[in-house]
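Tokens for chain A. Residues wanted.
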């Protein structure tokens, strides 16, 4: 029988202890794909205005920034980039160097992780702020069928375009393409369709889920959307609770 972890008060954890809880596997030779989402109690992935930021709490923001400091690349779908008006990742250089020295994440030189955007048709405005505000060049994961003029425009805007399929991007090809560039500690921030496609193929290793103390109603989507149902068994790794009743759970693939 799987043991359910005891709840930990977030306020009892200093930054080092929290980083230890979210550490990536040490001496990692293969890709480790972590997904991070926030949802309401009733399962909505967005709040007022149709964006996930409306569900954010201080606890969620604290973990969100830590997960970016720990990872080597932030993976996201083009639809989420547009809906959430993504910019380049801005992380703490000192902390990333410290995390790297501890062997649990970060970067040796403290540079921010690149944003890797999945779009089979290279459908992203080359003037989008995710390109213009990136300290590390943005990666565009696309297909050979993507219009050449879009690819040229994105490349001219400073992005690195990576072709990983002919017409369709196979979910398992995504972490493999990133690992081939030495980016093995992957943090996927959605959206639901990208997460659903990765989960349906068993391509995720863990889910970090924040439950905001809020009921939303309406027609908001769930955190995972896919064309078919699947059953991917997950085991609980930890449960954190903040003073405002925000719950932060980490689930690892069984």
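Reply:
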């Amino acid at each position: 029988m799987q043991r359910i972890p005891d709840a930990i008060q977030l306020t009892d954890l200093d930054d080092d202890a929290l980083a230890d809880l979210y550490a990536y596997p040490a001496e990692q030779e293969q890709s480790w794909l972590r997904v991070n989402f926030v949802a309401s109690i009733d399962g909505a992935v967005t709040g007022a205005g149709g964006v996930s930021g409306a569900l954010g709490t201080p606890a969620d923001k604290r973990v969100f920034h830590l997960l970016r400091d720990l990872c080597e690349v932030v993976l996201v779908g083009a639809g989420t980039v547009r809906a959430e008006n993504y910019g380049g990742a801005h992380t703490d250089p000192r902390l990333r160097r410290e995390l790297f020295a501890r062997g649990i994440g970060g970067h040796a030189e403290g540079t921010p992780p690149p944003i890797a955007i999945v779009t089979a048709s290279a459908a992203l405005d080359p003037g989008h702020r995710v390109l213009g505000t990136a300290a590390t060049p943005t990666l565009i994961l696309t297909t050979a069928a993507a219009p050449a003029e879009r690819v040229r425009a994105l490349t001219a805007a400073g992005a690195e375009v990576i072709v990983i399929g002919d017409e369709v991007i196979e979910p398992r090809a995504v972490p493999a393409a990133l690992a081939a560039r030495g980016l093995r500690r992957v943090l996927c921030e959605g959206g639901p369709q990208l997460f659903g496609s990765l989960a349906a193929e068993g391509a995720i290793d863990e889910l970090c889920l924040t439950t905001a103390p809020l009921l939303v109603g309406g027609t908001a989507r769930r955190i995972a959307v896919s064309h078919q149902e699947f059953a991917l068994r997950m085991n609980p790794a930890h449960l954190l609770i903040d003073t405002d009743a925000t719950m932060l759970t980490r689930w690892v693939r069984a």
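The mean pLDDT is 94. Helices lie at 15-21, 58-70, 78-83, 93-102, 129-132, 148-156, 173-179, 192-200.
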